[in-house]
Every structure is written in structure tokens, then in C-alpha cells.
Amino acid sequence: MQLVATGDASAFEIVLERHEDAAFSLAYRMCGTRAAAEDVAQESFLAIWRAGARYDRTRGSVRSWTLGIVHNRSIDALRRSSVHDRRRINDDGLAEELEAPDRTDLQAIDNAASSEIRVALGELPSDQRRVVELAYFGGFTHTEIATMLNTPIGTVKGRMRLALEKLRGQLGDWQAVRA
Amino acid sequence: MSATDGNLDCGRVLDAAPYVLGALEDGDSYREHLEECATCRAEVAQLQPAVDTLPTSVPQVAAPEALRARVLTTVRSEAELLRAAGSGVDQRPRRNARWRMPRVSLAGAGAALAAAVAASVAIAVSLNVTSHERVTVAQVHNLPGTSAALHQVGDRAELVVSGMPEPPLGKVYEVWLRRGSTTVAPTDALFSVTSRGSGSVAVPGNLHGVREVLVTSEPLGGSSHPTSEPVLRVALSA
């Protein structure tokens, strides 16, 4: 990323190659359509190219930073969409909708990790998993979630915290390995 | 120390979870709070790794090849521009260019203004404009189906386009700033659009005193003088 910050297009190409699938996958999961995901991913990578100097390695991996930007851009897209279709937030079947050519061998490792984390999410109590999914993948605010679930705001925040604590405990050093 | 361990000595520590999930409505305020609250900083640090794993829970699919091609087209153009700027890269925008603005017929201007006003209403409704965000709709020239608007929040400005055709082969869109009646300054903001015609670009520099933000189609790497008529114009009040 230091080279990217100096305007090295070749260095950026490596970053793009390493993270484009994960970025596109996250945007697709959140936005619900390939076209919207493509828009978000393109905007995100150009933002990364232009903001490379802001990357701080002490605060996390390039992958986490990249996916954080994709997440924020996806939320922006969701919130300004006139056809805000957030019903897909609980749709775990997107991968099955894809045709075989959309998958690559190189994704095998990522898919294994993906499966492991989905299992961890699945083991959360449903009320905790739901607030995390609504917040992270659906782009809803804590107030919106409280209204939607007819639950006090404090309870929603508490469920979010409990869910993240459990996930962290279950996944251990997974993040460090990935970085 | 995590809140789960019973350390709730800050009234805002429960905001940490929605904050790291991107769901806290007053996130900016909490970000400022983190500067001075060790308890909340520790809580955020504790919870963030779990959030960082969430993107990987998503089924992994391959990004379209066209995506990479479009991103790299813009990146290489901008890299070329940076190289050309050399040691003067910090002196943005580049020196002013003289450019005579094309004349617009009164009837054409009226129609464009009416379209802009109509579009402004539509966009103001659809974009969830906050009290801190100012959205100015662009006038579009010779690009049917294109819409564009400049989003300003504080000192930051971003041009967002949709329905815009990709620039011609070997070309890239370039953003210009006009301060006087005819003086147009190039910027290092170059961009392309997706296959669906959407895109965005940060408009660099301070817009104080800028009367118009313009977009033209220029050779890869950008130009120091416009070589084509503007396709987008965003008129700004002084």
C-alpha cells in the first residue's frame, strides 16, 4: 500500500487482484444485484486508489480496510436507493443462484473460511444473529432495527454486543491468520 | 476491557457494537468521543475483529473481468497524470488554462435549467440529503439519459453520475473548475463509468469561489487544456 500511496498503478493492480473477489462478493451480498455490486466495487477501488495514503497498517490488514470501504459504500448505495430492497439481508442462497462459471478454484480457500464463519454465525442465538445481519448486511441503523423488531434500543445494542463477543470467541485468531 | 466483563463506567460503551457494525446513527459524534474515552476505545478494539470476519461469511464469487478493466483504465490514467506532474504533484490543481466557454442559446439554457430543476427535486427526494449535505444537479450536454449531481459535505465534494456513456476509446472524463468568467483550471480528477453508466469522483481542492464544475472527455492521462466541449456543468452559487 505504500507504493499505491505514491501512485504506483502496478502495486494497485496487485491489491485489486487480491481483493476484488471478496469486495465484489460483499457488495453483491449487500446490494442484491450484480450490477449494483459492480458499481459499488468500482467506486470502492477507485476510492482506495485515491486514498491509499490513508491506510494505517497498525489498524488492520489491507483486506479489512478494503472491505470496510466496500461495506460503507454498499450502505451508502442501499440508503440512497429508491428501490431499497433490503429484504435480501436474510437471503443466504445467493451463492446457489450463481452459475458454475462464476466460481473459481482460487475461491476454494475463501469459501472454506466463509463456511466456517457462516457456521459461527449460525450458532448464535437467532435474536442476536438477526440484529447483526440487519445492521451489517442490511445497512439498517440501530434505531431502525429497534423499530422493525419492536424492541428497545438498549436491547438491540446489547444483542449486537453479545453476538460480536461470541463471534470473536468462536473464531479466535482467524483474523490474524487471514491478515 | 470489554463491557461484557462488567466495565460499564462510560455511559456510551454500549454504542461500541452498533458503531463497529456501521449502524450507529450518530457515528461521527461517537468517533469524536473515542478520542477521549479509553473504555470505549477498548470496547471497539475488542469487537472490531469479529466485524472484520463478517465479509468473509459471504459466499465468495468472482468479480467480473470488466470491473477490473474499468478500474485499471482510470487508475493508469491517473498514474500517468501523477508521473507527468512529477515533483509538482502537490501543486494541485495544475496551472490555470484559458478556455473560452461555448455560448449556449437562451432557449437551450432555459430548457436545461428546467430539466435541472426537475432533476433537482427528484434527486433531493431520492438521495436522503442530510442537513449537512448540499446537492447540486448538473446540466448535461449531448449525453441523453445521463444525470449527475455534485454532493458537498463540508470541504468535501463528490461528483456522482448515472446513465452516462463510457468515454470514447482512449479517452477519460476530466473534471475542471471555473472561477472567473472564462478561466478554467484542470484538476487531477479523472474518471470513467461502469457498464451501467454510473460512477463517482472526488472533486479535489477548495471550491470556494468556484462558479462551475465542468466535465469534458480528454485523452488518457488528462489534459491541461480542454480539448472538447463540456458534457457536464454544475453551476455553483458564489
How would you characterize this protein structure?
The complex is a heterodimer of chains A (179) and B (238). Chain A is 70% helix and 0% strand. Chain A is mainly α and 179 residues long. In chain A, α6 (108-122) packs across α9 and α8 (142-149) packs across α9 (153-171). Chain A is globular. The relative contact order of chain A is 0.10. The model of chain A is unreliable at 87-109 (pLDDT under 50). Chain B folds into two domains: 3-57, no CATH class; 65-235, Immunoglobulin-like. Chain B has 238 residues and is α+β, with helices and mostly antiparallel strands. In chain B, a hairpin with a 4-residue loop joins β6 (171-178) and β7 (183-191). Chain B is globular. Helix content of chain B is 31%, strand content 24%. The interface between A and B is large, with 80 and 59 residues.
CATH architecture heading of the largest domain in chain A? Orthogonal Bundle
Strand content of chain A: under 5%
Name of the CATH homologous superfamily of the largest domain in chain A: RNA polymerase sigma factor, region 2, helix turn helix motif
Could you give a short account of the major beta sheet of chain B? 6 strands, antiparallel
Q: Uncertain regions of chain A: pLDDT < 50 for 5+ in a row?
A: 87-109
Q: What helical percentage do the residues of chain B reach? A: 25-40%
The Cα radius of gyration of chain B reads 22 Å
The span between the termini of chain B is: 51 Å
Alpha-carbon Rg of chain A, integer: 17 Å
Quaternary form: heterodimer
The CATH class of the largest domain in chain B: Mainly Beta
Q: Please, what is the average pLDDT of chain A?
A: 77
Question: How many runs of DSSP E, i.e. beta strands of chain B?
Answer: 10
- Most extensive protein-chain contact, per-chain counts: A-B, 80 and 59 residues
Overall spatial form of chain B:
globular
State which percent range the strand residues of chain B make up.
Answer: 15-25%
Based on DSSP secondary structure assignment, what is the total number of beta strands of chain A? 0
Mean of all residue-level pLDDT scores of chain B: 75
Give the fraction of residues assigned to helices of chain A: 55-70%
